[in-house]
Amino acid sequence: MTSVRLRKGLQNAEGSEDGAAHEDHVKLEHKLPSEGCASRRLWKTLSFTLGGTIAFCVGLLTSVYLATLHENDLWFSNIKEVEREISFRTECGLYYSYYKQMLQAPTLMQGFLGLMYDNKTESMRTINLLQRMNIYQEVFLSILYRVLPIQKYLEPVYFYIYTLFGLQAIYVAALYTTSWLLSGTWLSGLLAASWYVTNRIDTTRVEFTVPLRENWALPFFAVQIAAVTYFLRPNLQPLSERLALLAVFVSTFLFSLTWQFNQFVVLLQALVLFTLDSLDLLPALKASRLYGVQIAGLLLVCALQFLNSMILGSLLISFNLSVLAARKLQKNLKTGNFLNRLGKLLLHLFVVLCLTFFLNNIIKKTLNLKSDEHIFKFLKAKFGFGATRDFDANLYLCEEAFGLLPLNTFERLSDTLLFCAYVFVLCITATAALAGALRNLSDPASQQSTGSTGKGAVSLKPETAYNLVHSIAFGLLALSTMRMKYLWTPHMCVFASSGLCSPETWALPLKAVRLYSPKRLCVLRYAAPILTLLYVSYKFWPGVMAELSELREFYDPDTVELMNWINSNTPRTAVFAGSMQLLAGVKLCTGRTLTNHPHFEDSSLRERTKAVYQIYAKRPAEHVHALLRSFGADYVILEDSICYERRHRPGCRLRDLLDLANGHMIDGPVQNDPDLKLADHPRFCEEIKRDLPPYTAFFTRVFRNKTFHVYKLSRNK
What is the CB neighbour count within 10 angstroms for residue 363? Predict the structure, then answer.
């Protein structure tokens, strides 16, 4: 049998040629990596520089845009000082008054002492404002304004509002950075910033509530989320990990220092970490460090606020300590088969919750803490755990801001394609997370110490998993309480934009329909955000420019007249009673002493406010006079907008809430409970205007315009 084979000489020659070619290839390989690495480093440097520059510019432009809207809406530069101060409505005016007070103090030390021993915010009481309220930002700004050589060039009010609008630049830059970190391209950051601006109605309200605490706090919270996102990346260098953890600590501290509701927001974040940790979607060690950082940040704020009991008794501290303790108590929590692990997980959850409520109960009883009980009363009534006649809880329940998120919000968000993109990304990412969680619970060997949460076709990075559950948690909060949408919608911009630019988002559907290829993946991840940006720019740019050209002017002559009258016709030591929203403006514009104010996080103040509000209830003149005089009131301001209110539905007007709390039948077409009784007296705010003897004996009208009626209380009764 014959066969054909190569001649030995030729075979050896070809072999030597192959060897030479192989040697040349090896030499080339040694050369190419260094050249490739250099070009990659150069590309990364250029991309980072360009992306960073765009982040800075976008943040700055957003800040200027919001400041311009504020100016155009009020003509802030042209109105009088008293009108500027009145424009800081409700609690905003109260907070700004402390900045003004610090600037008017002869020395910084006297300003500090004035805040620590304040007897003008609540009459007949001396309170430590630095302990009670989150006003360190006003203190810091007042010090800066006094120290920096800017008094000749910039008025105090402009220094204040420009600082806040400057913080919005940091806010947008942080959103941009988070999106960039998640997707790997700064294009997603640009899309996130664009969505933030075009959905401004639903993402921020800083332009008309400038000094509000959340406008100070949310930029720091956005920075914290960016730092957490970076910290959760796998395979970080030890130095990078420590710096990221430091950034988380500093931003958590600043966020907590500037907003009284910090503990509830950070608690929700802790619950997100707990969920991911339990499902092995992020490394347990990193979760533990984040729990510790949250506790440390809050305790530092507690120390600066002179051991504020509301922080010590917060659910956050109790929960985090319970999680860390339960982990020590329960060994081998993440071992065994699916049913075994599921049972351990449920037991772990039960132990953590029991420890949390037990520890929190002990702390609250030890400290006799009642500062936040109105919040839990509100939550209990809101979620249907029995109707309530509690005045404080009903004040929140009847406000539109604390109701359910309106459906037209989703229409607005869909117009910019934000909500559509968000749902698309959410569905794909949630599918990957669910698959990863089930695999981790079923197969302990699939757990990754580096933090990778999945293998093969379905995978999810820890930082993506965190932002997914964070978005779901804050979305549920926003759906239940409209005011909380400002915590959700900015993160929605981040999550949707990063998902559109992320290769992981597109890989799953492409593999599902068997169309996956690297080229298609690359085209989709860049084409989708670019087309979205073009659509948003084309559709909404004319509206933005029209909005910037629309000019309005602040106009509230009745309130201006009232403030001017108080300044001119009452002694500086006079004490005023009235609605807490109006009294905040009285303190800012006139410096007079108040009986009550809008900062509601104190049980004794809530009781005092309810007593003062009897001016709008069905009470006799002598009873109202005795109540007001017990708080040292010299004057009481009655507002027609409250006495004859029509803004709220029957049963939710302030006078209705007072009638209900007092056990009286509510006026109007309302179904009254059978145990309610007819009041023995007419409504005080209506009857006093008739100048009948029972009322004139206790109250003398000293000022009146179309909105306000001011009465002086007699002292000898």
Answer: 17
Distance from C-alpha of 36 to C-alpha of 454, rounded to nearest angstrom: 30
Chain position carrying tokens 């974040």: 269
Of the candidates 185, 217, 272, the one whose C-alpha atom is nearest the C-alpha of residue 528 is 185
Taking the model in full, what pTM does it have?
A: 0.92
Residues 592 and 140: their CA atoms lie apart, in Å, by 24
Q: Is 505 exposed, middle or buried (0-12, 13-18, 19+ CB in 10 A)?
A: buried
**What are the angstrom distances between the C-alpha of 417 and each of 162, 351, 515, 525?**
31, 43, 25, 16
Q: How far is Cα 602 from Cα 372, in angstroms, rounded to an integer?
A: 8
429, 438, 454: which is closest to 509 by C-alpha? 429
Burial of residue 278 (number of CB atoms within 10 Å: 0-12, 13-18, 19+)? buried
CA angle 148, 151, 155 (to 5 degrees): 120
Per-residue tokens: 536: 């948003």
The tally of CA atoms less than 13 A away on the side-chain side of residue 201 is 11
CB 300 within 8 A of CB 255: no
Query: What's the pLDDT tens digit per position in 167-212?
Result: 999 999 999 999 999 999 999 999 999 999 999 999 999 999 999 9
- DSSP secondary structure string, 144-174? HHHHSTTTTTS-HHHHHHHHHHHHHHHHHHH
Q: Measured between alpha carbons, how far is 525 from 182 in angstroms, rounded to an integer? A: 13
Q: How far is CA 455 from the centre of its chain?
A: 35
Of 590, 594, 597, 596, the C-alpha closest to 565 is: 590
What separation in angstroms does the CA of 549 have from each of 304, 542, 544?
44, 11, 9
Instruction: Identify the residue whose tokens are 């315009």.
Output: 705
Tens digit of each residue's pLDDT (9 = 90 or more) over 215-259? 999 999 999 999 999 999 999 999 999 999 999 999 999 999 999
Structure token pair of residue 657: 């809430």
- Give the phi and the psi of residue 40 in degrees, each rounded to 5: -65, -40
The answer to whether the beta carbons of residues 165 and 286 sit under 8 Å apart is no
User: How far apart (Å, rounded) are the C-alpha atoms in residues 627 and 613?
Assistant: 10
Query: Is the separation of the CB atoms in 699 and 622 below 8 Å?
Result: no
What is the SS3 assignment for 534? helix
What is the rounded CA–CA span in Å between residue 524 and residue 359? 51
Residue 124 has pLDDT above 70, yes or no: yes
Helix, strand, coil: what percent of the chain each, to 5? Answer: 70, 5, 30
671-694 pLDDT per residue, tens: 888 889 999 999 999 999 999 998
- Chain centre to alpha carbon of residue 624: 39
Q: How far is 648 from 411, CA to CA, in rounded Å?
A: 25
- What are the φ and ψ backbone dihedral angles of 452, each rounded to 5 degrees? -70, 135
Measured in whole angstroms, the distance separating CA 507 from the mean position of its chain's CA atoms is 33
* 154 torsion bin: left (phi>0), alpha (psi -120 to 50), beta (else): beta
Q: In angstroms, rounded to a whole number, what is the distance separating the alpha carbons of residues 86 and 77? A: 14
* Vertex 654: Cα angle to 388 and 696 (nearest 5): 130
Q: What is the pLDDT of residue 34?
A: 57
Beta carbons of 475 and 316 less than 8 angstroms apart: no
DSSP 61-109: HHHHHHHHHHHHHHTTTTS-HHHHHHTS-HHHHHHHHHHHHHHHSSSHH
pLDDT, position 35: 59
Q: What is the Cα gyration radius of the chain?
A: 31
Condensed to tens digits (0 to 9), the pLDDT of residues 137-175 reads 999 999 999 999 999 999 999 999 999 999 999 999 999
Q: Residue 153 carries which side chain, given as an amino acid letter?
A: Y
